[in-house]
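Reproducibility note. Readers wishing to regenerate the assembly model reported in the main text can use the exact inputs given here. Chain order matters: entities are listed in the order in which they were concatenated for prediction.
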Amino acid sequence: MSLLEVEDLRVAFGASVAVDGVSFSVDEGKVVGLVGESGCGKSVTSLAVMGLLPKGRGRRARQPVQAAVSEPVDGGLKTAAAAPQAIPASGGRGGRGGADVQGRAVFDGVDLLSLAPAAMRRRRGKDLAMVFQDPLSSLNPVVPIGRQITEVLERHRGLKGDKASKEAALLLDRVGIPDPYRRLREYPHQLSGGMRQRVLIAIAVACAPRLLIADEPTTALDVTIQAQILELLRDLVETEGTALLMITHDLGVVAGMCDEVNVLYSGRVVESAPVRELFRKPTHPYTIGLLGSIPRLDLPIHEPLTPIRGSIADVIRWRDGCAFAPRCDRVASPCVDGEPALVGAVHAHRCVMAEEVA
Amino acid sequence: MSTEQTDPHVPAQRTEEPDLSSAVSDAAAPPLLEVEDLKVHFPIRRGIVVERTVGHVRAVDGVGLSIDAGGTYGLVGESGCGKTTFGRAVLRLEEPTAGRVRLGGDEVTALKGERLRRYRSKMQMVFQDPLGSLNPRHNVDMLLSEPLKVHGVGSKAERRKLAVETLDAVGLPKSVLERFPHEFSGGQRQRLGIARALMLRPDLIVCDEPVSALDVSIQAQVMNLLDELQDEFGLTYLVIAHDLAVVRHLSDRVGVMYLGKLVEEADSESIYEHPRHPYTKALLSAVPQPDPEVEAGRERIILKGDLPSPANPPSGCRFRTRCPWAEDICAEVEPEWREAASGHKVACHFDL
Ligand SMILES: Nc1ncnc2c1ncn2[C@@H]1O[C@H](COP(=O)(O)OP(=O)(O)OP(=O)(O)O)[C@@H](O)[C@H]1O
Ligand SMILES: Nc1ncnc2c1ncn2[C@@H]1O[C@H](COP(=O)(O)OP(=O)(O)OP(=O)(O)O)[C@@H](O)[C@H]1O
Ligand code: SF4
Ligand code: SF4
Ligand SMILES: [Mg+2]
Ligand SMILES: [Mg+2]
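Running the prediction on these inputs yields the following structure tokens for the assembly.
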């Protein structure tokens, strides 16, 4: 049994389905990737596992979305960080009422989705922690860095005063921030983007969580800083045996970090495989299309790109057929004749034409 | 694609000028764009009643480069190194503190008023954020015609005809003319941004992070489009981007910028095959490759620390605070911008 087993996760905002039956698992000391383009459901999946989605469907439905997400939990970390990512600016698609979450997310034998909010809050930050894409909006701007770290240490590890400060400084040092005692007194805006992301990682690992979810942790950063952060995460997995769920749209990051990969399209896993398998033998036309779209430093210069046509706006509903059909070059009539199933165990794909594709 | 153009009011199209297309292949032709020792310093002001200038952000601090007609120059570097400011100063959207810009042999830096406005029509910009750069209350017809109106080009009907042709060139149907920017996807908006830049049939287009806001599959569409349009309209590009693979794919010459200065420049082949500057080496080694075998066997140069402040750059070599090869001389003497191999320039004391 894996540390985290997500089974048939479904998340709907009103009538719009953001995550549509996603299953995957993460083992201790392993890195599992969720990869796909904007809006495919990566963040919603991770927020559902963390219990950070605004609740919908009867359960505390009175609570307005804003209040539900800005609840001061996680050591001064504004969980509202989730809000700008998860809630589209248009506020559209009838999502205001909150999320309807179904399925299971079994962590160490316990289904997180069935836990009461208070019980989930106790685990968050301690057993499982999350690092968001935008470090600035995930930190509280008016609270010094040090206070934001010691708060977590106090709540989950019972450390107080000097002991907590000392531990906070050690954590900053560990994530490679020079002069940690000075930094503890500073505010988020006084730090560079890369340093803020380190602080978030320091907060996330403060209680040695067994599972870390990193949602696009380096997307906002420069490549040289990205390399530093990825190195830090790799080190954490290797030395602590942390399980890492890595969310990214960058197949380069996937190739360098992950053991297993799940490719998402329109709320579903369309291909999943061990990382080398996936890159050696991509099977789903979407995965093949993604790989053909990336300019690569190791291929001959000016090698033409083969983009995927259209955009994610061109979809059909999964229950009617393959959601990728409107953009797929290999589309045939079986593709739009009902739901395509995920086929295969170790290397699985959701494409009815895969035999022909291979 | 329909680009046939008979309207006398509209600036001439490259495709119709045989002499110019031959100039493109002629190695002896002067570069289309020449920039010499360009500087843009922003004053840092303090004080409530009386503002004083307490220092300068040296955003661009002496950059020179040239781009041949029909060529693509890629300017790459990390956030805050001055790429956008350089691009804006070339277009005179930012007033240079010092230096010279020549377009087609004519000095642009000294132009004022009406003559500057005429020059501006030959140089256009495509922005990173397609939505932010398009007026949300204007429909596509208005957005595309506006640059022509400003420059007093064509009648209303002529402008519309040109808009339709340009939309066709960027792969959008005529039916979008009545639609507004928010009704488009990111990739379509970027096509609109490009169409708008094309309306005046400019010689030079500065593309500032043209694909970084887009999804991977859409990035490829837009890059291919930029390629096609370059051939079709005989465009010269200055591509500004932080993504080394994007820059390599689009450019034939590449310059690497660090803290307001170029540290290395060469044709794309040599800069990616044989990087000479430590910063370029580190950048290249940091780009994750979509191939697990390559990634596993890779030597990474992990740089320490962050970019220093451009208001107070380090003495000597600006890269020395992060350079793994730095020696004493690097703090004392600024390395000169020298030609280390034919057509390959670098600013480092050593041959690494
Ligand atoms: N609170 C919400 N209310 C309504 N719809 C939502 C909400 N949060 C997310 N969605 C929708 O769910 C879908 C999945 O969003 P999600 O944020 O998971 O995408 P993502 O894969 O993380 O994309 P990105 O790469 O842009 O971060 C999108 O269509 C999004 O608009
Ligand atoms: N109008 C301005 N006033 C003061 N400082 C400015 C101004 N515009 C830019 N700067 C500063 O000049 C430096 C260079 O900025 P610029 O936007 O050119 O960088 P860039 O290389 O384009 O970065 P990015 O990749 O983040 O777009 C930065 O330190 C920036 O803060
Ligand atoms: S099921 Fe059909 S449309 Fe979908 S990816 Fe496979 S071939 Fe393409
Ligand atoms: S001059 Fe010195 S500090 Fe600068 S890049 Fe070369 S070796 Fe490094
Ligand atoms: Mg997301
Ligand atoms: Mg910029």
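We highlight two features of this model. Residues 223-240 of chain A form the longest helix (18 residues). Residues B 83-84, 208 surround magnesium ion (ligand 6) (CB under 6 Å).
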